[in-house]
Amino acid sequence: MADKLATYRSKRSASRTPEPVPAPAPAPLPRGDDDTFVIQEHHARRLHWDFRLERDGVLVSWALPKGLPPDPNQNHLAVHTEDHPLDYATFEGEIPKGEYGGGQVEIWDHGTYECEKWTDREVKVVLHGRRASGRYVLIHTRGDNWLIHRMEPPSADGPEREREPERQVKGQRNPRPAPGSTREPKREPMPELIRPMLATLGELPPPSEDDEFGYEMKWDGLRAVVYVADGRVRVVSRNDRDVTVAYPEICDLGGALGDVPAVLDGEIVACDPAGRISFMALQPRMHVRDPAEIRRLREEVPVTYKVFDLLYLDGHMTIGLPYVQRRELLESLRLEGPHWDTPPYRKGGGAQALAASEEQQLEGIVAKRLDSVYEPGRRSSAWIKVKHTRTQEVIVGGWTPGKGRREGTIGALLLGIPGPEGLEYVGQVGTGFTRETLDDLYRRLRPLERKTPPFAHSLPTRDAKDAHWVTPKLVGEVEFGEWTRDGRLRQPSWRGLRPDKTPDEVVRES
Asked: Which residues are catalytic, by number?
């Protein structure tokens, strides 16, 4: 008699994995009633769901990249895998990295089933579970590939709706709904564009409100919303520019989601030679479109996508959920890879979070109300950015020629911020540049030259002397000491261009 578990055992070692690994034995396999099913959520290289049916002493198994189909109008792929031992029906745990199927396994649903038909070409069953119920058919197409089809619409008042617990904000985490769960509301198409929610500049919440906030590190990079559908990835900057081609590393994120559609919010960051996250280090990656140059920079200046929010998941908008629940769903995806990760946040403890960010030489923290919904495109007081250093977005309105070592290029940039009467002059910046930065700015500003100053009022004579005026299109960022009484930046230092922002988005930071 053929050993049905030979393939299973050949891929596993009982000394290296917590999975049940029965020893080979001539005795017959254990027999149940051929009526047990289990669906396990498997966070392996690609997220998927393992669908297992008890049959002749083993669990016959299929991997479902998209889970069960939600209605009869959709068929989902089912990949036939090796038979598993019956003990696997109760297995949950972490398969070590490097082992076959490495990753977290959780039971998504289990119950009994009735078999209506079982052949090499077709398996027809009726499931009776907490979350999955109804008639399904598996149809063999080619090789290990099958299709799974739902044979009738989900019942609005089925047993799984009565018994399925609601997701809890606190306490034990329930697995998130997979495609096909009949507790799901009507599916929504993925939006084409969700503008990121913005934070206001401020101080730490008072101690009396500390436990009402979650605290994240403030990442010094490029804000980006990432859209993942059918394994394809689209990266959109804060000013609605598609920058996918510039960051090919992030496109591998599609595989980590296992074809589950999602919209993520986060920050693209790069590190300096000392390993510190640095906005200046990211600058070479922010303006490149040439494929050969991108390939070179990908090796020299690798980037990481820091994911901190979830806006859409698996057919459902999540922006109306509280922040703490969005974070719970996001963390359940376990997005950790070579060029992306989900940094942790802490509930309460704002002072400790701020001290930790300073120790890590980060820009600061963001305090987010635990009960706040996501407000696309709005600068909301529900999110507060608390910085160690003062920075200001600025608009370049002109430049003065360099002298000495800078002769033939830019000496200083003339900066402005939108005001009630137009572009208000806030001073000039002449430090913080590398020679490469100056050459790049010179190349960008020359085509924007104009004869008249773009500022609402006249500049001081010493600042306007020999100035070259430009149309105010380029947005940059400076670090500075304080604001002077006459509204100028004291001791500004250039940090870099902000191609993710437009001039009308620039506001004065108090």
From this structure: 218
